[in-house]
Amino acid sequence: MGFLHLLVFNFAVTITVSAGTSSLRDCPVGQFKLNGMNECRELLKCSDLKNLKVGKRIGVGSTKVVHVASWNGLNVAVSQVNNDKFTADFEHGLEMLHKYSSSQYVVQLIGFCKIKRIIVTEYHELGNATSILSIIEKRYGSQNIAVRLKMCLNYARILELLHDGPGGTRVMCDSNDLEKLLSQLLVTDDIRLVLNDMDALPSVDKNTGSKIKCGGRELLGDFIAPEQKWPYSGPFKDAAMPGYDEKTDIWKAADVFKFLISDIDSNYDWVRYRLFNLFRSCKDPDPNLRPTSKYLVSVLEKILAEVSLAKTEL
């Protein structure tokens, strides 16, 4: 039985299409334009996917399996949900891609086939951000403080989009450790970060004070925020677990930034000092005292501007 024939049955699939380094958001809503295309075209639909050719598997997890494929000569990646219980996550991810499709900080939506549970988005050859440091080192060498700060700013702007964007206030729930969080991001050919996995972005309602919980199990480890941990004695009970908000993302942002600026040149110790104060504020035990993502963006913009000025004066 052919792979496309299988798609008709109980599978949820994500297809990812290759994108170039130029701006991909110059098309009206409901259209897309990829590298090599002369004009925008309507989002792909079910009938457009019949020429899909699936190649080798390039990744597998508890939720999805990923294959290299091609569609009408374009490189693609096919992510297939391998358990029906994750269908709701798939549909949520599609909804989020629709909401945020106009942003340069989110993978571009190219099309979808809801009946077959297929989503078409960009493919980025460099993969996810777990390998971002080696990519930066290979592309820019060891003197790359500005590039690393740009990555920090890039991530802060992704958080700003989620916390104050077209989808309300969203929280990155699929981020219980650093590697898992980085795996949600793709690295573009021109070394930018774009949010790719949007299957777990619950909404905080600021008007009603309604908060969220990331799943129904107990969360453990130093990476997650204190308010995400079971606060009572005795066994964990999801019904009794208090909710929390987007400030959990701010707690984790400090560790993302530390990772991105690790091993920077000693000539920029003043940058470490400036960032140390920012990291400390992100790690405040009281989530209400942590900065907003908008504040993170403003501070990182200032530091990056100072680094650029310092390089000019050398």
From TrEMBL:
Main localization of the protein described in the UniProt heading: membrane
Record keywords, A-Z: ATP-binding, Kinase, Membrane, Nucleotide-binding, Signal, Transferase, Transmembrane, Transmembrane helix
Molecular function GO labels: ATP binding; carbohydrate kinase activity; protein kinase activity
SUPFAM superfamilies membership: Protein kinase-like (PK-like)
Location in or out of the cell: Endomembrane system
GO BP annotation list: protein O-linked glycosylation
Serine-threonine/tyrosine-protein kinase catalytic domain segment(s): 52-164
Gene Ontology CC: endoplasmic reticulum membrane
Pfam families linked: PK_Tyr_Ser-Thr
Membrane-topology annotation of the record: Single-pass membrane protein
ATP-binding found in the keyword field: yes
Signal sequence, renumbered to the chain: 1-19
PANTHER family given in the database record: PROTEIN O-MANNOSE KINASE
Protein name: Serine-threonine/tyrosine-protein kinase catalytic domain-containing protein
